[in-house]
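Quick one:
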Amino acid sequence: MSLFESMGRDLGLVKRVDIQEVRMNKLNFYEYQDDVINSLKSSILENGQMENAIAYMDELDENGEIDGCKYTLIGGHTRYLAISKLLEEGQGDGYINLSIIEKPQNEYEEKALIMSNNVQRKKSMEVRYHEIKLWEEIYNTLEERPGGTKRDWIGSKIGMSGRGVAKVIEKMENNTSATSQNTPHTMTRNDVFKRLKTNLKALNRTKEISLQCNCEDINELLDSLINDLEVIINYEN
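Output:
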């Protein structure tokens, strides 16, 4: 299946799954604002999940290891974060509606799908530039180049004209303070605790698997790790 075919996939298969069986995508570089997440939380509580998130099935994480999850997100990260936060607060049922697609064949295809699902997002100049550079990498991998210029093609993918793409590149690459900022997101303490909570969920899922295998020695070690993580997470509260 080509990149263009994959981006027109049938999203008809919808599943309602436990949020703890879903992992965020490490290739997703977009920022998610707390006020947007909180607004979506209120909407979900009042009206339910109005739009499906998009994911593919994969029991292995980005390191090729079993982490207890079964799905990797492509789109709907804000919905995922809102539902996860509701679950942490004891609200909602902890389930998310997913439209299931085939697993992307490579990293370029996966990045293209993620960016295509964020076309309507309001973005800073830095994020626009990062998108342009990623689409440029993808364009260079295509066996059959589309008609028109590369910048027009990139512009069609991010909702800009080719001239607009050229202006973003010129402004960013002529700004010496901006050229060193290839990654639009600066990691914070909050990111550390989000990752700790994700790891805690994964360990709990792994313990469930270990219990089914009657691995008592592993269970004791997992209990120790889980307790240590809970102490660190509760320290922030």
